[in-house]
From TrEMBL, chain B:
Belongs to the leucine-binding protein family. It comes from Streptomyces phyllanthi. Keywords: Signal. SUPFAM superfamilies: Periplasmic binding protein-like I. The keyword Nucleotide-binding does not apply. PANTHER family: LEUCINE-SPECIFIC-BINDING PROTEIN, PERIPLASMIC BINDING PROTEIN OF ABC TRANSPORTER FOR NATURAL AMINO ACIDS. This is ABC transporter substrate-binding protein. CDD domains: PBP1_RPA0668_benzoate-like (cd20014).
Length: 290, 399
């Protein structure tokens, strides 16, 4: 039993990271109808920022610096992507455009950092382990769970309780109506795109000590984020949170309980959700029209 | 906004698939270098050779090392093999047979090379077996480890300068059985190589009286977090662990093995790829104490290795790996065979390959066995901290 509780804990850590990564993808998809396939590459930019700035045995300062640098880099990339995708309204064109940007970014990263696998060490003070339920558990992962909780609360307050949040939610629900009310929806969209990309890049730094950085990681992360978005429901903060927690648990606890089926548990969960709730578990409220 | 539908997602995924197809199509032509059209099959003049290694995808680090090793040998011999100028055509193998097989076929049919060297992926190597067998051209495998390549599906035209999976993991079995008092848990990535590695280890380990605590395969290329498996290992009460992973999975497995506190109490054994080259650099101190079997280590004492290390360091600006040695040795074998061969028809080359004899390599002396596989010494290596970096110290020779 204790073993499984540790898996639950671990699922929460992975869920926290997935939430940070998938949130931007979900909001951009819900708001702008843009499936940003460069999202994984933005994540990878964050991971490589950590490779460059966090050296072995680095302290908290270097790590915080990496988080800030990744946030800036992510926001810039997000802004750029928002501008690019506004040039066309065709879904497939936008998806291919972002896919292309993602491939270019990933290739540039490979040119700069090589094809080798890089790992990032957790900041020295939290690099060790503590005993949880009789097993050694890395302190860093506990901090990641804490970060996930703080992020979830902060985003909830921002999106559900602030005036800015009501504009964002209204834009998800009906962009034309919000524009008719005199709000510059373009600026809202760019802002959300940039913020979402910044979060993905920060996720890349925070996931560094767990997943490292290597070519191809962008695709794996993008796929997981897409699954989270599909399970949670598009354009919904609560959906992204629920989807991330579910996928985190499916990966950790599911693997512990059913190791033989580990490779497709995630997709089985997605298929199940699509069968029962085709719009996802907690889709954005969409107003009257379909 | 209900417009976002599954339909658009499906279309996007279809678009992605098309994109991927287009890209992989480009990959095989982008990776090419060298000129075409010179024919190059006349005896005495230049000889045209194909180097087929992954320059993109997950195996790119391995491919780059093989290429660097091969090219180092050429550089050291004024670009000549067997006294003849070499026109080397390098092509990207990609990640699997869907890119590797057509790339090799192009080397033989279009570029008309006399022989092809390289091949990292075992599925690609097995997929190429019939083609080379029928075209009567030599294929020198410089990495792919599937047992069948020089076993059930061996060919007169396929030679291997690297290792076979069962061989490299089997060498470790008796040593672990002797060192570990108790049972050992076996874990590997769930694909052909993982299964062969575990089978090879298990066979020699159990024959030497070892006891297995459990056997588990993790989804290949999809496992980033090993915590559920590490908990299962702990619960099994095993006294040691044997693991086979490579690349990113090797980094994550070894680091998490240490982070979750198993490294302190449960010694970790593995096949050398678990702690080789860039993988070891990324693992850093987390890998200290891991013991592996492999046919090479940078810490080998021989003069050939010392000289090779210095030359490789200067060329590639990093220490060599077993992959670099395999590339280097493949060039050395071709050097000997071309010197011996009467013309460069496939049959003449194959005949000469049979007479290559012992190769004086950085890994020690080795030769081809009757099945065209490398017959060599395996070393028991232990990761030790060496200043700021970690190295694979040579503990013992395995037999």
């Amino acid at each position: 039993m204790a073993t499984h509780l540790v898996s639950v804990l671990n699922g929460l850590a992975m869920g926290s990271l997935l939430f940070a990564i998938a949130l931007g993808l979900s909001l951009v998809f819900g708001m702008m109808d843009v499936l940003n396939l460069a999202h994984g590459a933005v994540y990878l930019v964050g991971a490589y920022v950590a490779v460059a700035l966090v050296t072995d045995g680095a302290g908290v300062a270097a790590f915080v610096l990496a988080v800030l640098a990744a946030a800036v880099a992510g926001a810039l990339l997000g802004g750029l992507l928002a501008a690019l995708t506004r040039a066309t309204t065709h879904h497939l064109d936008q998806a291919l455009l972002t896919l292309g940007v993602g491939l270019v970014v990933a290739e540039v990263l490979t040119l700069a950092f090589g094809t080798d696998v890089h790992s990032i060490s957790a900041p020295a003070p939290v690099g060790g382990g503590v005993t949880v339920l009789g097993e050694t558990y890395p302190v860093y992962r506990l901090l990641v769970i804490g970060f996930g909780v703080v992020l979830a609360v902060a985003v909830y307050v921002l999106v559900e309780r602030s005036p800015l949040g009501s504009v964002i939610r209204a834009t998800v629900a009906d962009r034309a109506m919000v524009a008719a009310l005199g709000v510059n929806t373009g600026r809202v969209l760019v802002g959300v795109f940039a913020a979402g990309a910044a979060l993905a890049a920060v996720g890349g730094v925070l996931a560094g000590p767990i997943l490292g950085a290597q070519p191809g990681l962008d695709e794996k992360v993008l796929l997981l984020a897409l699954v989270v978005v599909v399970i949670g429901g598009l354009g919904s903060v609560r959906g992204a949170l629920l989807g991330a927690v579910v996928i985190g648990q499916v990966q950790a606890l599911g693997t512990a309980l059913l190791p033989e089926y580990a490779s497709f548990l995630v997709f089985a969960a997605m298929a199940l959700v699509l069968l029962v709730r085709p719009a996802g578990l907690l889709p954005a409220r969409t107003g009257v029209h379909a | 906004m209900g417009a976002v539908s599954l339909f658009s997602l499906t279309r996007t995924i279809a678009g992605l698939a098309v994109g991927a197809l287009v890209l992989s199509g480009c990959g095989s032509s982008l990776g090419e270098s060298g000129q075409s059209g010179s024919g190059g099959t006349q005896s005495g003049g230049a000889v045209k050779l194909g180097l087929l290694v992954p320059l993109s995808g997950v195996y790119a680090p391995v491919g780059e090392d093989i290429k660097a090793g091969f090219e180092l040998y050429l550089d050291q011999h004024d670009g000549k093999l067997g006294g003849r100028d070499v026109d080397l055509v390098t092509t990207d193998e990609g990640e699997g047979p869907q890119t590797g097989v057509p790339a090799a076929q192009k080397l033989v049919t279009q570029d008309q090379v006399a022989a092809v060297a390289g091949v990292v992926n075992s599925a690609t190597a097995l997929g190429l077996r019939d083609f080379f067998d029928e075209s009567k051209k030599p294929l020198l495998i410089a990495n792919a480890g599937a047992d069948d390549i020089t076993g059930a599906r061996k060919s007169e035209y396929v030679w291997r300068t690297s290792f076979s999976n069962g061989q490299v993991s089997g060498a470790l079995g008796p040593a672990v059985a002797e060192e570990v008092k108790g049972s050992v848990y076996l874990i590997a990535a769930d694909y052909a190589a993982g299964k062969e590695m575990v089978a090879g280890f298990r066979k020699s380990f159990e024959a030497a009286g070892g006891k297995v605590a459990g056997e588990k395969y993790t989804p290949f290329g999809k496992t980033q977090d090993f915590q559920p498996y590490l908990s299962a290992i702990r619960k099994s009460g095993a006294d040691a662990v044997y693991a086979f992973y490579a690349g990113a999975e090797a980094v994550n497995f070894v680091k998490q093995y240490q982070q979750f506190g198993l490294a302190e109490k449960t010694p970790l054994y593995g096949t050398g790829f678990l702690t080789e080259g860039g993988v070891l650099a990324a693992q850093g101190k987390a890998a200290v104490g891991v013991k592996t079997s492999l046919h090479y280590s940078t810490e080998l004492d021989g003069a050939v290795n010392k000289e090779f290390m210095a030359a490789y360091q200067e060329k590639a600006k990093k220490p060599p790996t077993v992959y670099a040695v395999q590339g280097y040795d493949t060039a050395a074998v071709l050097d000997k065979a071309l010197a011996e061969a009467d013309g460069d028809s496939g049959d003449a080359l194959v005949k000469a390959l049979g007479k290559v004899g012992p190769v004086d390599s950085p890994r020690g002396s080795w030769k081809f066995d009757a099945d065209h596989n490398a017959e060599q010494t395996f070393y028991l290596r232990e990761v030790r901290a060496d200043g700021k970096t970690a190295v694979n110290a040579v503990v013992d020779e395995l037999d």
